[in-house]
Design goal:
heterodimer, A: Four Helix Bundle (Hemerythrin (Met), subunit A), elongated, B: about 80% helix
C-alpha cells in the first residue's frame, strides 16, 4: 500500500482553512499519481494504491468541509465518491477472488469445482466493475477533478490568510497536548 | 450512517481547536455503539461502528499531532478496530453470496434434471445423481462453514480488542487530550480578550489624559489673557 506523503509546515496553531488547503492539495496529487494501470486485473495492487489515495482525499475533504465553498465542495466530493465507489466495486471482486483461490487450494481436488464456479462468476463481475471504472479514471476526467480541487484549495488558502508560525502563538507542533 | 454534526468549527481558527471538536464528536459516535455492537448478532451496529471507527481514524490521520502521543496511538487502534469489524462485515457479505450461488446452481440443476426426465411418470434418482453441478455443492458448503466459523472467531477477537482498549484507556486518553486542547484554546482566547480590553482601557485613559491636558492648556491661556486684560485696564 502506498504511504501517505507527509504534510510539511503544519502545526496545531495553523488556521484550519490553511491546513485544509495543504492537506487536500497533496492528497489530490496522490490520486492522480496512482491512476496509471488500474484497469489491469493482473496487477491488483495498482488499483488498491489508487483506492487508498482516493480514500485519503475523500477523508481530507470531509474533515475540512467547513473550509470550502459549499456548492463547489459538494460537486467535488460527489466526483471523488464516484471514483471511490467504482474503485471499491473492482477491489471487492479482486480481494474476494484472491481469497477464494487461496481457500480452493487447501481443499481436496474433488471439492474445488464449486469454488471455481463462484470465482468464474466473480470474474464476470470484475470485468463489469472494470468497465464501470474506466470512465472514472479517464485522464481528462481526472484533470478536471484536479482543477476543481485547485479551486477549493485557493478558496481555503484565501480564507485561512497568512498563517502564524509555531513560535508566534506558543504552540509546540508535536508534543504539546501530552 | 450519516456522521454527527460538529458544532462551532471555525475555518479561521486554529487547526488544533477545530480538530479537538471533531475528535470528541467522532469518539462519542464510536462509543455510542457499545454495548449493542458487543452482541454477536447485531450486525447493523457492528457495521455502523466500523464506519465510526473509520471516521475517527481519518480525522486523526490529518491531525493526530495535535493530541500528543495519544493521537497516533488512538489512530492505530481505530485502524485495527476498523480492520476487525471490516473482516466481520466481509463474512456477513460472503455468506449470503455463497448461499445465493448455491441456490442458483440448485435451481439450474433442477431445471436440467427435469428436462432430462422428459415425459417420464416420475423422476429417476439416477438423473439427479448426474446433475451438471453435482460436484460443486460440497466445496461451497465447506466454504459456508468456514465463513460462519470465521465470523464467530472474529467476533470474539473484536470483543476482546474493545475490552482491551477500554482497559488500556486508549479512547479516554484521546478524549482528555482533546479536552486539554479546547481548554488551552479557551484560556488563550480569554487572555487575548483581557489583553484587548486592557488595550482599549489604556487607549481610553490616554485619550482622557490628552483631553485633560488640552483643557488645562485652554484654562491656562484663558488665565493668561484675563491677567493681561486686567493689567491693561489697571
Amino acid at each position: 500500500m502506498a504511504k501517505a506523503r507527509e504534510i510539511s509546515d503544519i502545526h496545531q496553531g495553523v488556521p484550519y482553512a490553511t491546513a485544509a488547503a495543504r492537506v487536500v492539495a497533496l492528497r489530490a496529487d496522490e490520486v492522480v499519481e496512482h491512476a496509471g494501470g488500474v484497469l489491469d486485473v493482473s496487477e491488483i495492487e495498482r488499483l488498491h494504491d489508487m483506492r487508498v489515495a482516493t480514500r485519503r482525499l475523500r477523508a481530507a475533504l470531509e474533515v475540512f468541509r467547513p473550509c470550502f465553498p459549499r456548492d463547489e465542495f459538494k460537486a467535488t466530493l460527489r466526483e471523488v465518491k464516484g471514483i471511490a465507489d467504482a474503485l471499491g466495486e473492482r477491489r471487492d471482486r479482486d480481494v474476494t477472488i484472491a481469497a477464494l483461490e487461496d481457500f480452493g487450494e487447501v481443499l481436496a481436488a474433488p471439492d474445488r469445482p464449486g469454488i471455481e464456479s463462484l470465482v468464474a462468476k466473480l470474474r464476470t463481475e470484475q470485468e463489469e466493475a472494470n468497465d464501470g471504472l474506466a470512465g472514472f479514471v479517464d485522464r481528462a476526467r481526472l484533470e478536471a477533478l484536479r482543477l476543481r480541487v485547485d479551486e477549493l484549495v485557493a478558496a481555503a488558502e484565501e480564507l485561512g490568510g497568512v498563517p502564524e508560525t509555531p513560535s508566534s502563538n506558543g504552540a509546540d507542533p508535536v508534543e504539546r497536548a501530552g | 450512517m450519516k456522521p454527527r454534526k460538529v458544532k462551532k468549527l471555525d475555518p479561521r481558527g486554529p487547526l488544533g481547536e477545530n480538530a479537538a471538536r471533531i475528535v470528541q464528536v467522532r469518539l462519542d459516535e464510536l462509543r455510542s455503539f457499545i454495548p449493542a455492537a458487543l452482541h454477536e448478532d447485531c450486525m447493523v451496529e457492528q457495521h455502523d461502528m466500523r464506519i465510526a471507527a473509520k471516521r475517527l481514524r481519518y480525522i486523526l490521520e490529518a491531525t493526530e499531532f495535535c493530541f500528543g502521543r495519544s493521537g497516533p496511538a488512538a489512530r492505530r487502534r481505530a485502524k485495527d478496530l476498523q480492520g476487525i469489524l471490516g473482516e466481520l462485515h466481509d463474512c456477513d457479505v460472503m455468506l449470503p453470496r455463497v448461499e445465493h450461488h448455491l441456490a442458483e446452481l440448485r435451481s439450474a440443476d433442477a431445471g436440467a434434471v427435469r428436462e432430462r426426465a422428459g415425459n417420464a411418470g416420475d423422476l429417476d434418482p439416477a438423473l439427479a445423481a448426474r446433475a451438471p453441478h453435482r460436484t460443486a455443492y460440497r466445496g461451497l458448503e465447506v466454504l459456508a462453514v468456514y465463513v460462519e466459523a470465521r465470523r464467530r472467531l472474529l467476533f470474539e477477537r473484536f470483543r476482546e480488542f474493545w475490552e482491551e482498549q477500554e482497559r488500556a484507556g486508549t479512547w479516554d486518553r484521546l478524549d482528555r487530550a482533546a479536552e486539554r486542547t479546547l481548554e488551552d484554546a479557551r484560556i488563550r482566547r480569554e487572555a487575548m480578550e483581557r489583553a484587548e480590553r486592557a488595550a482599549r482601557a489604556l487607549a481610553d485613559a490616554e485619550g482622557a489624559e490628552r483631553e485633560a491636558a488640552a483643557r488645562a492648556r485652554r484654562a491656562a491661556e484663558e488665565l493668561r489673557l484675563a491677567r493681561h486684560n486686567a493689567g491693561s485696564n489697571g
